[in-house]
Every structure is written in structure tokens, then in C-alpha cells.
Structure of Citrate lyase alpha chain:
Amino acid sequence: MGYARVDAEYADKVVLLTEEFAEYPHHPISIGQDKVDLIVQVEAVGDPKKIGGGATRMTTNPRELLIARKCAEVIFASGYFKDGFSLQTGSGGAALAVTRFLEEKMRRENVTADFALGGITASMVALHEAGLIKNY
């Protein structure tokens, strides 16, 4: 939802969909309450079976996998890869592979992200479901 912040800033009306309401105040936020006109509770937001398809499929290209592995190694060695770090990825094949390689390092080092945004895909959902992204 990080990209929606700019849209909400300039939209005539902002309507949010949610499956459940969180305790107030909720942290972290992507869109401030002063930018929201309406919140609608729905049974399910989107179809989770479709978030890993099309352009959001994991790459099998050896060159992209090598780049992704090296990116994960740079993130790991950056000094910022520690408990409570923030994670933002894209949704292309190489970015999904970076997320997968980071997952291995997160498990090994017992590190969780405070929040994640960007390409919210099957890989990112898997991190959340594994408890590797904090749930406030």
C-alpha cells in the first residue's frame, strides 16, 4: 500500500477495503485517517490464489537468480539487515527471488521485518504467514 499514499493525497474520494478492523491507533500506517472518506469491510480482499501468477511469478532465469542472490547478500551485509528492518520489494521475477533468498537469511538469523510494502505477492504473503513480518 505504500504506493497508494500519493493516490490518496490527490484523490477526490478514498475508499479502503478491509477484512478486519485493527485497534486504534494502528501502526504503521500507509494512508493517514485524514485522507480516508470511507472504509468498507468485506469478506475477502482479492483472490490470494492469483497473487503468484503472470508477471508476478518467480523467475527461473539463471542470470536473474544470480542477480537476486547477490542483491540478498548485499542487503544481508549492509548493516541494516537486523530485527525490525523494513522491507520493500517489487513484484517482478528477480524481486520475488530476492524475497525468497532473504527469507532463508531471516530464518537463519532469527530476524523479522517491522513492516513490508511494495510488491505484495505470494512471496511476501509467505513471509507474513511464517511470522517473518511483524503483525501489529
Observations:
- The first strand starts at residue 15 and ends at 18.
- The first helix runs from residue 4 to 10.
- The chain has two domains: 4-41, 48-129.
- Residues 4-41 form one domain.
